[in-house]
Amino acid sequence: MRKFRGVVPSLALLLALLSAVAGCGVSAEEDDDTLTVLAAASLTESFREIGDRFATANPEVDLRFNFQGSSMLAEQIRQGGAGDVFASANTGMMDKVREAGAVAHGPDTFATNRLTVVTPPDDPAGIDSFADLARPGASAVVCAPQVPCGSAAEGVERNSGVRLRPVSEEDDVKDVLHKVTSGEADAGLVYVTDAVAAGDEVRRVDVPDADQVTNEYPIATLDGGGHQRLAQRFTDFVRGEEGREVLRRHGFGTP
Prior knowledge:
Family: Belongs to the bacterial solute-binding protein ModA family.
Number of strands: 10
Distance between the termini: 81 Å
Low-confidence stretches: 1-31
GO molecular function: metal ion binding; molybdate ion binding
Keywords: Metal-binding, Molybdenum, Signal
Number of helices: 10
Protein name: Molybdate transport system substrate-binding protein
InterPro entries: ModA, ModA/WtpA, TonB_box_CS
């Protein structure tokens, strides 16, 4: 019987070579191109468009978004929640994440935003100014004080001397907007960008004092996410020319 003496040694050599290659190690970042971005609810529309453009330029990256109120996201990160990038609707929430030691690089301010009043298109309550929100019989909705849009609302109240008595306080600005578009409230205090996103679903009433209470939006890569190279590529894209163009078109100011 013919014997294939070379087969076993060759197989052993092949296995050894494969083992050596595996032993060299492929980092999680090189092996897994999934990038998780935690972003304020008010960034939903703009970041989805930025994400599409980023994906076109980086087809190998699987980009996933988690849009919630900044305070909720900050708490998730502080409790060890997974994520590679955090984009907050104000510096206060980012400071909490940074103080917890969760920031790897940044933060850098990439956008600004301010508040405006929105009503249903037919404006049944006749809301023509911020002061009208405090009028007896008018049902107004705002963000809760502990979230960025709620903190900004308190600033507008202080500057204008108008004290609101909202019928509800919501955890993020999208919930405020929904109360208005669904007809559950006569008016709501939301970001300009949310009014832009809602389009014909709402009527907008500018708030002069809102210019004095501008929210700065910082973005940072997170420590422990395992994809810092990709995370930095995304934050650079957001802060770059293409990202700024998208943000401006959605109503954000850019620093």
